[in-house]
User: Which sequence fits this backbone?
């Protein structure tokens, strides 16, 4: 709209009268039209659109930019949605391979992890969370020997750089795995007679059987040049200078923070008990140029792994203090990437050539299975691992809602919570449970955004584009083909103002 | 928030005083009283409704001259009628609750005390199947005259037809 | 011409439910003696949707959209009572920024509602067209701001327990400030338009007077009660949200007639503008939504939360049995009480005065019938 002009100023349209309306219009001119002055980004709710839907060829590629709650909550950012989705498809080997990208010790971790992922599981808001940690154990038990052989093979392309890993705990073992995958020659130094660190020393065998530790340590051994046990670094053994003298290009300190005395029976509280004399144990480090912080941990910058001595990195409980295993693994992964960048100049291909995420979206959804087994109160904070039957595990994995995949899986949650019951979904009754139809009746829809709020996959979006006027009620029902259409039917009402 | 005044505030003291006076004047008809969140809650027997209500309005320390809200709540064996009263001078609040048996669903009307109870009583009567004795105009308010349902009772289930799909009970 | 006999010839007519002057589907059965009203019996329920029953089947997070449809002129005010009741029972702390945004939008909503009242009111008095369109035009500007903020023109669904559904858009503060700054001029213009108008004065001054004591006894509230000389305003008397941080005065008038009700609303809008300006100045940064769960379970208990709606005291009485759905949600409608109070004024009036009186009460039938 243009500024108002006093059209009738002066003389009126009737020639014989002189109508002076000056005062009235002058007053009105003081009133300006606000929307012409400042453009505001519109967030108008116009219509519901779907980003993608299974069984609809939309050419849509999920972005995977946002992590699902389980992965975001996990200290190691393990892609729980991904491997649970693969388990649901019966692809245990692929699930295992995907799991190793963020956590190379699924067997051990599944026995000791306090699984914070299950606490934030979106499915838990509906009935009960997916038993992610049990599925991890199931996956570890069912991975084939052939795939295991294939995964734990050192790559052919070598980098001709040597890395010394001090400490064969979870952090040290996983750093050895990732750096081995990147093509470095890794040697692990462990002062105890056996590898495994806190998990072997402080966890009761009733909870974490020794053969699982042995199996995973053996797997990691294939990725290294050697695991040297009874080879302490520090007092009574090699110094850091000795290591660099032996042509090592970088050192990773995964010293841990655990006590040597194994806890009898079930551990209570956390999976690793606190260590009272960390400062004393780490007292040799400042002489070697590695500074400690107030608590006796190795000092690093927040969020980084580089110590005060060049080419010396640290990770796990040595910098974090006592905690849970998965936190150490997350820290170790960052340390591996830092060491890789330090030695190679740029990140290796391994970090980017991961398992294709697109494959991990499960194509089936089961809304009937309740939680199969649950830790009884008083059984310790951690779940006792129960071996799952294959059928059970697949049913359990199918309960996953595939959060944030931006592709509709037909979970019926929007239908369930739509206040005017405008949404109608039908799924096939056979075991594939594909969505046959997804309809929104715009004659009923009140654009309240409740469905957008509750949608776990973030498939439904509300956009300012709209086309809701129609002459036939049948046309007011939008199916998934209409809703996944790439171009809006009518131009954005604010398009002109946005310019 | 501002309204959650500290215990011992002027308002709180005043409410405790009213509670004491109420116990003195109508102790036998009181089921329970409580002062919480700057508000006085009193559960009374239905027979004592006219006396206590008139006392609450007329007693010089109370002067609850304004009826905010009158409604019913259905429970398995009784319907609770809830009166939210307000004193415009002292800004005190009181919630009076009385349990009316479903076998003899009658309670005295308070329209002669507060004219503002007129329509809310008519609505509560039709929604819960209550009778407010002494109401000057006991017609239905929102429902049609031939509708004998008591919609806000819990045994009245909404019939969604096929509209309510996928809702698990 | 032959003289008529003086015995009254009573006639019964229906005013409404479909009549432009009843502001919705209000039906009043009138017994008329000539043009004088002998008896007026209002019939309600034409818009009864059973909101209080429907919400018993809904979870707490699903309820705000249906509350929008009660009083569809001041929707945000409806949402507030319910949302604050849930917050109080759940013990949720709302972020400061959300409280300020709430206040700004609520006061704009109040002004919008008064604009939407002003237009049709003048129409009912016979000032056809001009003032009506002015009222709705000004409302439209604020509605534009609301549309861009909440995403909807009328049924906003913007407040949620724990704060707001999303943050305000970029440029909101500038636009809101601009709107607030020009509103006093608009209100002046409105007053200039009608206040010296002979028809307007004749049809409002001394029409439908109600004294304060009667209004109070009938449970009236809001501008209707304040026009009768009783300065009760919940924003001042029982401050909720952050209203205790703003400097504003409670507007009241002594006449109790239609003109007083008009005047109170006009003054009240100026005070609302003051609140908006102060809130815009003080608004802090930060989150707008407290961390809550979607399927909120309220502890067992009850709460009666009341707020100052554009039309008076809007109450939400929530009874929880500890589940995810309310056991009972009673919604106290200010329109219902005010309409009930005004109906005692009607007998003895001439018919046009009845129209003016009912219009001056500012009822929304979606709210009275629920």
Assistant:
């Amino acid at each position: 709209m243009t500024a108002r002009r006093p059209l009738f100023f002066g003389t009126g349209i009737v020639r014989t009268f002189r109508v002076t309306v000056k005062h009235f219009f002058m007053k009105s001119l003081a009133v300006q039209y606000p929307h012409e002055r400042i453009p505001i980004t519109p967030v108008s709710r116009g219509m519901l659109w779907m980003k993608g839907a299974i069984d609809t060829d939309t050419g849509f590629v999920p972005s995977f930019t946002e992590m699902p709650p389980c992965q975001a909550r996990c200290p190691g950012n393990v892609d729980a949605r991904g491997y649970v989705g693969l388990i649901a498809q019966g692809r245990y080997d692929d699930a295992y391979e995907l799991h190793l990208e963020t956590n190379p010790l699924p067997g051990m971790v599944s026995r000791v992890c306090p699984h914070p992922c299950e606490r934030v599981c979106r499915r838990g808001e509906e009935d009960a969370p997916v038993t992610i940690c049990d599925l991890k154990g199931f996956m570890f038990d069912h991975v084939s020997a052939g795939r295991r052989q294939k995964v734990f093979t050192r790559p052919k392309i070598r980098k001709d750089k040597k890395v010394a890993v001090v400490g064969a705990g979870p952090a040290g073992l996983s750093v050895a795995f990732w750096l081995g995958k990147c093509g470095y020659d890794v040697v692990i130094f462990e002062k105890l007679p056996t590898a495994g660190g806190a998990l072997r020393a402080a966890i009761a065998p009733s909870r974490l059987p020794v053969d699982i530790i042995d199996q995973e340590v053996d797997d990691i051994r294939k990725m290294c040049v050697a695991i040297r046990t009874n080879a302490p670094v520090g007092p009574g053994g090699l110094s850091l200078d000795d290591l660099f003298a032996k042509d090592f290009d970088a050192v990773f300190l995964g010293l841990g923070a655990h006590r040597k005395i194994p806890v009898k029976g079930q551990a209570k509280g956390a999976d690793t008990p606190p260590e009272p004399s960390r400062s004393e144990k780490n007292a040799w480090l400042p002489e070697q140029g590695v500074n400690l912080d107030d608590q006796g941990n190795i000092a690093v910058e927040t969020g980084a792994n580089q110590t005060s001595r060049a080419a010396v990195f640290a990770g796990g409980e040595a910098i974090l203090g006592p905690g849970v295993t998965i936190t150490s693994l997350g820290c170790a992964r960052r340390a591996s990437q830092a060491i890789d960048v330090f030695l190679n100049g740029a990140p290796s291909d391994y970090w980017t050539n991961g398992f294709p995420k697109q494959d991990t979206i499960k194509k089936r959804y089961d809304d009937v299975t309740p939680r199969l087994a649950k830790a009884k109160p008083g059984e310790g904070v951690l779940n006792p691992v129960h071996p799952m039957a294959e059928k059970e595990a697949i049913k359990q994995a199918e309960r996953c809602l595939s959060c944030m995949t931006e592709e509709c899986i037909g979970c019926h949650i929007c239908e369930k919570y739509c206040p005017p019951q405008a949404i109608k979904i039908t799924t096939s009754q056979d075991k594939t449970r594909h969505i046959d139809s997804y309809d929104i009746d715009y004659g009923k829809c009140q654009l309240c955004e409740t469905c957008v709020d509750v949608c776990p996959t973030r498939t439904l979006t509300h956009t300012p584009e709209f086309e809701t006027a129609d002459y036939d009620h049948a046309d007011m029902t939008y199916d998934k083909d209409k809703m996944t259409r790439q171009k809006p039917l009518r131009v954005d009402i604010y398009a002109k103002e946005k310019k | 928030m501002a309204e959650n005044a500290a215990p011992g505030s002027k308002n709180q003291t005043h409410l405790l005083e009213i509670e004491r006076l109420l116990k003195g004047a109508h102790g036998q008809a009181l089921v329970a009283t409580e002062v919480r969140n700057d508000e006085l809650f009193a559960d009374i027997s239905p027979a004592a409704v006219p006396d206590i209500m008139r006392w609450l309005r007329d007693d010089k320390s109370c002067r609850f001259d304004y009826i905010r809200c009158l409604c019913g709540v259905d429970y398995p064996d009784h319907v609770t009628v809830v009166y939210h009263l307000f004193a415009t001078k002292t800004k005190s609040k009181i919630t009076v609750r009385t349990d009316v048996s479903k076998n003899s669903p009658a309670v005295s009307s308070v329209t002669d005390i507060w004219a503002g109870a007129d329509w809310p009583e008519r609505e509560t009567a039709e929604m819960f199947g209550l009778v407010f004795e002494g109401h000057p105009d006991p017609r239905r308010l929102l429902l049609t005259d031939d509708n004998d349902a008591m919609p806000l009772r819990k045994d009245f289930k909404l019939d969604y037809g096929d509209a309510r799909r996928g809702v698990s009970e | 011409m032959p003289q008529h006999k003086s015995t009254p010839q009573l006639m019964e007519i229906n005013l409404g439910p479909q009549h432009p002057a009843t502001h919705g589907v209000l039906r009043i059965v009138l017994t008329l003696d000539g043009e004088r009203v002998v008896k007026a019996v209002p019939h309600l329920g034409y818009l009864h949707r059973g909101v209080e029953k429907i919400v018993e089947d809904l979870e707490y997070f699903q309820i705000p959209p249906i509350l929008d449809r009660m009083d569809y002129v001041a929707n945000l005010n409806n949402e507030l009572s319910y949302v604050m009741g849930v917050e109080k029972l759940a013990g949720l702390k709302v972020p400061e920024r959300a409280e300020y945004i709430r206040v700004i939008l609520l006061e704009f909503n109040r002004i919008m509602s008064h604009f939407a009242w002003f237009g049709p009111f003048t129409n009912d008095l016979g000032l056809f067209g001009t003032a009506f369109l002015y009222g709705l035009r000004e409302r439209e500007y604020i509605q534009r701001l609301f549309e861009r903020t909440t995403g909807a023109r009328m049924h906003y669904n913007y407040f949620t327990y724990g704060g707001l559904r999303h943050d305000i858009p970029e440029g909101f503060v500038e636009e809101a400030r601009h709107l607030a700054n020009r509103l006093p001029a608009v209100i002046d213009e409105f007053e200039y338009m009608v206040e010296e108008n002979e028809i307007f004065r004749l049809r409002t001054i001394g029409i439908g007077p109600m004294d304060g004591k009667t209004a109070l006894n009938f449970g009236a509230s809001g501008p209707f009660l304040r026009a009768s000389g009783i300065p009760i305003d919940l924003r001042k008397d029982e401050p909720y949200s952050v209203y205790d941080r703003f400097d504003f005065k409670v507007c009241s008038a002594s006449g109790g007639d239609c003109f007083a009700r008009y005047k109170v609303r006009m003054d009240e809008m100026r005070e609302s503008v003051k609140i908006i300006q102060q809130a815009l100045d003080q608004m802090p940064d930060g989150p707008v939504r407290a961390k809550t769960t979607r399927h909120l379970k309220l502890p067992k208990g009850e709460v009666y939360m009341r707020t100052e709606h554009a039309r008076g005291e809007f109450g939400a009485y929530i009874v929880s049995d500890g589940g995810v759905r309310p056991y009972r949600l009673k919604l106290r409608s200010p329109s219902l009480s005010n309409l009930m109070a005004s109906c005692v004024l009607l007998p003895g009036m001439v018919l046009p005065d009845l129209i003016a009186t009912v219009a001056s009460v500012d009822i929304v039938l979606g709210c009275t019938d629920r």
About this structure: Chain C has a mean pLDDT of 86. The two ends of chain C are 52 Å apart (CA to CA).
